[in-house]
Amino acid sequence: MGDTVYTSLNFRDAAIWLTEEIRISGMEFINTSRHSLLFGPDIRFEERPKLAGALDRNRLASLHRLSGHEESESDILDYATQEISRWEAVRDNAESLLNHAGGVPEEPGMTLLEKFDKVNVSYLVERFDDFDSKDFHRKVFESDDSAQHKFGLTDYFSKVVEMSNQFLAELENSNAGWRHSNSRHWVRAFTER
Asked: Cα(46)–Cα(41) distance, rounded to whole angstroms?
């Protein structure tokens, strides 16, 4: 191992829960990634495990098929509208901190960061564009310099705004397409993303 890996608590909680489920079930579990959050006495690592017996491809495919679940057009429009409101709120909160004279205030910045951690905004921004998680962590959590904290928080909230705007553009385009065409084709396209 030896790699530094950053994750939010909810993913660590899920990993602990799943590891315990594996232990209790007694099932064989083979991990194919050394970077997984799952490890323990009942989990072994094999990069290329040999599978016993033939795979039933039809059975596997059926596990991924949606059946008997049809969203109504109004449900999909409601969902898209809620997501637009959500990402506008995320963007607006981040922008309000970025607009403070003297930079992002540290205490409100850390409070909003904690809130964003809880609702997976941080998870998404860490994977967005060219965000540098290690640099962010070094500035915000490892440095004793208040100026570094502000730089790190400014970088983070700037990326949150950029990511939110990208999500909003996509949602607005989808919503505009829906309003324009009002077709089942759009509904199908939106749900298959």
From this structure: 14
At a CB cut-off of 8 Å and minimum separation 6, what does 95 contact?
157, 161
- Are 157 and 98 within 8 A, CB to CB? yes
User: C-alpha 103: how far from its chain's center?
Assistant: 27
On whether the CB atoms of residues 84 and 171 are closer than 8 A, the answer is yes
Phi, psi of 125 (to 5 degrees): -70, -30
Q: Pick 19 or 112 by higher pLDDT.
A: 112
Nearest Cα to 171, choosing from 86, 61, 54?
A: 86
Q: What is the pLDDT of residue 16?
A: 83
Work out whether the CA dihedral 39, 41, 43, 46 comes out positive or negative: positive
